[in-house]
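re: ur question from earlier - yeah i can do the single chain one, its not a big deal. heres the input i used so u can compare w yours
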Amino acid sequence: MTGNHKDSSITRRRALAVTGGTVAAGGLAVAGYQAAFADTSADAEASASASATSTSTSGSCMTLMTSVTEGPYYLDGALVRKDITEGKSGVPLTLRLTVVDATDGCTPVAGAAVEIWHCDAWGYYSGYTTANPGGSAPAESEDGSTADDDTYLRGYQIANANGVVKFETIFPGWYTPRTCHIHLKVHTGGQKEDGTYEGGKVNYTGQLFFPDDIAEEIFTLEPYSKHSGSYTTLADDMVYDDGGTSSGLLTLKAVHKADPSKGYKGSITLGVDPDAENTGAGGGGGGGTPPSGAPSDAPTGTPPSDAPSASASS
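and the output i got, formated as tokens:
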């Protein structure tokens, strides 16, 4: 599969790696949410609660998911908002994420703050718009949007009584040497302040992934097709460990099966330990720790060939 990226120098304002263990360090995930795309009406919320209860009784809540790298493109101060696109073009993506307490029968974690961030259709992250995504792509500034280069495609949502958050965004692009993915953190104990989320602690740091066949189809569409180069599939990704949903693979549903450009709805349930904290300090966990002064998976220089990327553990 080919995709697009662009050469530029890297400007990094912050690059930290968060790694961690399993549920003892705050992270595990469960099967995709059964009522992923219901409306947030009273009846829909009741159905969501019933689905969460069903999940806990089936035992699938104990499917373990290791916390993985925060990656090199994290920024503090993301805004609390549902729509994070800021006019960035791409295939629409609605995410419905459900946070449950893995230590208490998968009960919903009301008030949890879910934070996500990801690249645009050409592989650029806000805050790092001169970082080369690899391959060949237009400059980020050529996308024609009015997006704020420090904030686009980043945001928080606060979980409702059923532990549910919903984001409106676009299908991410890719950058060398990573597969298509979305970063996320689950926070508890803080509060909304000045438009962002302050205080509390991080219970889980992870990444969400997309089936190869859907990603490859999306990347043939505009504006994704303007980014050419070597795309990393799930099997060759340095972070994804082939565990399916328990490794962050989203359940996706096309808005219109015959026309992928109309968008997708994605869902997954995240089990966390609200008493644990994943600070990101120390080693261990998927993705490793980036060397001083250089992100571990930042796209730099000439992109690699089609050879598989190094494993997360190495």
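Strands lie at 28-30, 92-101, 107-108, 113-117, 154-158, 164-170, 181-193, 196-209, 251-254, 264-272. not sure if urs matches, ping me
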